[in-house]
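Progress narrative, Year 2. Work on DNA protecting protein DprA from Pediococcus cellicola advanced from sequence curation to structure prediction during this period.
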Amino acid sequence: MKNLQIRNFLLKLHLCQGIGCHGELQFWRWWRAHHEPGDECYLTANDLIALKCVSAQNQKKFSSAFSSVALQELLETHLEQVNYLTIADPQYPVQLKESYLAPICLFYQGSLELLRFPLLSIVGARLADHYGATSLSQLIPPVVKRNIVVVSGLAAGIDAMSHQETLRNGGRTIAVIGTGLNRSYPKQNTALQQYIGKNQLLLTEYPLNSGPKRHHFVERNRIIAGLCETLCVIQAKQHSGSLITANLALQNNRNVLAVPGKITDPLSAGCNELIVAGAKPVLNSQHIIEEFRFDRIQNMKYDY
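Result:
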């Protein structure tokens, strides 16, 4: 059980205030370079500060939190009540590990088997209209027949519609949320979140009881962009969060696609701009499917 030591340490680090994603990754890079997978970890707060994992302004806060009873209790709660995946685990997706600011710890409900399949991330407008819904109803059925798993963020609009259309067609879907597993946002998607957590895969980097905060959704977007092989944008305004996700996907060398729309429609302005900038226009499902390498898919089987 030696490997659990590093898993537990990564979880503790992730739950601790004052370090943040950059510091967590700084530690992980150092650990990976100097230790074997089964090594145990006994680093103190001072050790982590010496490794420059903590910014100067947060050192006092981090030192206090790292040795606190509250953190130990929080750690025990998550060890007992939550399934979690760390960047040290073999099941952690390689493509996410190589992406921008990869999370060192993800909490989950459902089956990690879905991470073994080719992943298509779909993002778009929260105020998606009939055109967005029609686009999804035409594009998703042939995609899921090819065992491509649909990833989205369980937000209102295109996100929720993508999950629902996938499920209606017997496909698999992964939802990446911006709250703890026991919280939901928006509330109208609570039942959908519970279903996905029970029957598909629900992921978050946020601990139990974490509520929705504005910056959570920007941070969540990097995971959506990092998990996938291909990302498709369906309806997006100028300067929208979907375009941020698309840019993150481009930084990660992912395929970025966009469904074009009317030049007079504000909901299509972002997609049209992506296409002008070089994103592949999607006119039918084949334009999505041809982005995937199907030699990876044919021999895969679900274990449940």
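The longest strand covers residues 105-110. The longest helix spans residues 130-145.
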